[in-house]
Write a structure and sequence with these properties.
The complex is a heterodimer of chains A (427) and B (121). With 427 residues, chain A is of the alpha+beta class. In chain A, 50% of the residues lie in helices and 20% in strands. Chain A has 3 domains: 153 residues, Beta-Lactamase (2-Layer Sandwich); 74 residues; 145 residues, Heat Shock Protein 90 (2-Layer Sandwich), CATH 3.30.565.10. In chain A, the strands form 3 sheets. A 5-stranded antiparallel sheet of chain A has the order 2-1-5-4-3, with helices on both faces. Chain A has a 5-stranded mixed sheet with strand order 7-9-10-12-11, with helices on one face. In chain A, strand 1 and strand 2 form a beta hairpin. In chain A, helix 1 runs antiparallel to helix 2 and helix 11 runs antiparallel to helix 13. The longest helix of chain A is centred in the middle third of the chain and has 27 residues. Chain A is elongated. Chain A starts with 7 loop residues before the first helix and ends with a helix. Chain B is an alpha/beta fold and 121 residues long. Chain B has one domain: Response regulator (Rossmann fold, 3-Layer(aba) Sandwich). Helices cover 39% and strands 19% of the residues of chain B. Chain B has a 5-stranded parallel sheet with strand order 2-1-3-4-5, with helices on both faces. In chain B, strand 1, helix 1 and strand 2 form a beta-alpha-beta unit. In chain B, helix 2 packs parallel to helix 3. Chain B is globular and about 30 Å long. The chains are: A alpha+beta (427), B alpha/beta (121). The interface between A and B is medium-sized, with 20 and 16 residues.
Chain lengths: 427, 121
């Protein structure tokens, strides 16, 4: 069964169910054709039916068999219980009457697709309301075919994922709390001033002590840690500030060239190379130049630092449809899979001196531009970061086109659009 | 002796600045609000003002405007925990903008620079 996320035992059970229903129908046709075996077949059918019923009612997730008009042929006990009814009361009703209280089949139902294609289908995370409570469900549908291969019925398998959906919602909330850092930012504000007093007076004490005073080691540690905290707070405040990008027309390639310039003064060494392969004539897009510079600086800086023994960082830019894709690949040691999942989590770091905010800030910036960032890595085979930025056109440009359309009144805008079309077709 | 006025709403920061800047050989006055600072300036203007931005009541940017209206020749250094205000063009009226840090080296340097430029030393 080519449906992701369905546990093997359930797949087996539902598979068996499909086989049984098909067998049952096959048996029924066969039974009609050869009447002299009627008794034996009747017995077989009875036995199959009993087995089918047992499986059907034994499954604790919801199961409904509907015909092509979405009329309920059978419904298992678990699903009927959720609706607060008996299975026999529901048979013959349309499933949309039961669930959507409507008079046409629910739009989201995957059975539409199953009847149309004869294949299994899935619609995840629907909200269904029963008699007492609401629940979140994944709905899978499987075809039941007649001898000619025509889909005559669909089995709806309704998996309760309320808990999972609740957890996901909570996770999103937590992410918002930590990621955007409303709370962290306000804490940062509160900590900053006292820290200045702590560090400032510690520095005074440090300087007042004789150079051979053993307590100088302690004041040195205080100063070192205060400096580290200040660094974290500075980045934290940047994280907050990055919420509002100032969008101006810009050329992504120019941003990448600027980043290269910034890096050439320090991080790059004779063993570490930064190679660029930038597509000519990328369309102008709207963005915050400083933020994007910061974002690429973080990724490329990380890549360079990951290659202690030298290597190559390759930066490519290319237009793909309505997006600009920037790929940053290094030849470093790669990222272990347990680290991979936490790569963009604020305050997560593997470096001794890192604050763990570099990539969190980067992701925030990219998302503020309507894009997304992903990473792939194979241990020993380097790491690639992929930044997808949608091409955002300025309102002035769009207004210009709206007024002049594609006529000769706006040669510049029209040319640019042609350009975009050609590239999106070609790439 | 050169007189500096430090405006900050945090008592311990005022004490730190006072102590550090006295060591540099300046006379130091402090104010905890923009209003108090403006009064002190009326009473006897300092040679330079170190001005925090986030203050209770009138904020540092408005305080800066008022100072500029009354005494164009009085140098002001903005000193904030936030670098965001740098983008507020009102802050460009100030002689310098120093982001607050436990390390006062940069602030001390800027004070020296501004005083020299304004011919106060």
């Amino acid at each position: 069964m080519a449906i992701g996320g369905l546990e093997p035992p359930v797949v087996l059970l539902v598979g068996a169910l499909v086989a049984l229903v098909t067998g049952l129908l096959g048996g029924w046709f066969a039974g009609r054709a050869r009447s002299r075996y009627a008794d034996r077949h009747q017995h077989d059918i009875f036995k199959s039916k009993q087995q089918l019923q047992a499986i059907f009612d034994g499954i604790t997730d919801g199961l409904i068999i509907v015909d092509a008009d979405f009329r309920v042929i059978a419904i298992n006990k678990a699903e009927a219980a959720f609706l607060g009814r008996e299975p026999k009361d529901l048979v013959g009703m349309s499933c949309y009457e039961v669930y959507c209280r409507g008079d046409v089949a629910c739009e989201a139902c995957p059975a539409h697709s199953t009847f149309a294609t004869g294949k299994a289908a899935l619609v995840p995370q629907l909200e269904l309301s029963g008699s007492f409570h609401r629940r979140g469900v994944d709905v899978y549908t499987f075809p039941v075919k007649d001898r000619d291969g025509k889909t005559i019925q669909a089995i709806q398998y309704i998996k309760d994922v309320t808990d999972r959906m609740k957890l996901q919602r909570q996770l999103r909330e937590v992410e918002q709390m930590t990621g955007i850092g409303q709370m962290a930012a306000s804490v940062a504000h509160e900590i900053r001033n006292p820290l200045i007093a702590v560090g400032g007076f510690a520095r005074q004490l440090h300087e007042d002590m004789d150079s051979d005073d053993p307590r100088r080691e302690h004041t040195r540690i205080i100063l070192e840690e205060v400096t580290r905290l200040e660094q974290i707070l500075r980045e934290q405040l940047t994280l907050e500030r990055h919420l509002q990008p100032v969008m101006r027309p810009l050329d992504i390639n120019q941003i990448l060239r600027d980043v290269r310039k910034l890096l050439s003064h320090g991080l790059l060494s004779s063993q570490t190379q930064l190679v660029g392969d930038l597509q000519d004539g990328l369309p102008v897009t709207m963005g915050d130049a400083n933020q994007l510079k910061q974002a690429f600086l973080n990724i490329i800086g990380n890549a360079i630092q990951s290659m202690e023994d030298g290597g190559t960082v390759t930066v490519t830019s290319v237009q793909r449809g309505d997006d600009i894709i920037v790929r940053i690949s290094d030849t470093g040691p790669g990222i272990p899979s347990d680290v991979m999942s936490k790569l963009f989590v604020p305050f997560f770091t593997t470096r001794k001196s890192g604050s763990g905010l570099g990539l969190a800030v980067t992701r925030r910036i990219v998302e503020n531009h309507g894009g997304e960032i992903t990473a792939e890595s194979e241990q020993g085979n380097g790491t690639s970061f992929l930044v997808r930025l949608p091409i955002i056109r300025s309102t002035a440009e769009m207004a210009h086109e709206r007024i002049y359309g594609n006529t000769e009144g706006a040669p510049e805008a029209a040319d640019r659009r042609d350009d975009t079309d050609r590239s999106s077709g070609g790439v | 002796m050169i007189k500096l006025l430090v405006v900050d709403d945090e008592k311990n920061i005022r004490r730190l600045y006072e102590s550090e800047l006295k060591r540099e050989g300046y006379e130091v006055e402090t104010a905890e609000s923009a209003e108090e600072a403006l009064e002190l300036i009326e009473d006897g203007p300092p040679d330079l003002v170190v001005l925090d931005i986030r203050l209770e009541g009138m904020d540092g940017i408005d305080c800066l405007r008022t100072i500029m209206e009354r005494r164009r020749d009085l140098p002001v250094i903005l000193n904030s925990a936030y670098s965001t205000y740098k983008q507020d063009f009102a802050s460009w009226m100030a002689d310098a903008y120093v982001v607050k840090s436990a390390d006062l080296t940069e602030l001390k340097e800027k004070i020296r620079e501004v005083l020299e430029k304004r011919g106060r030393v």
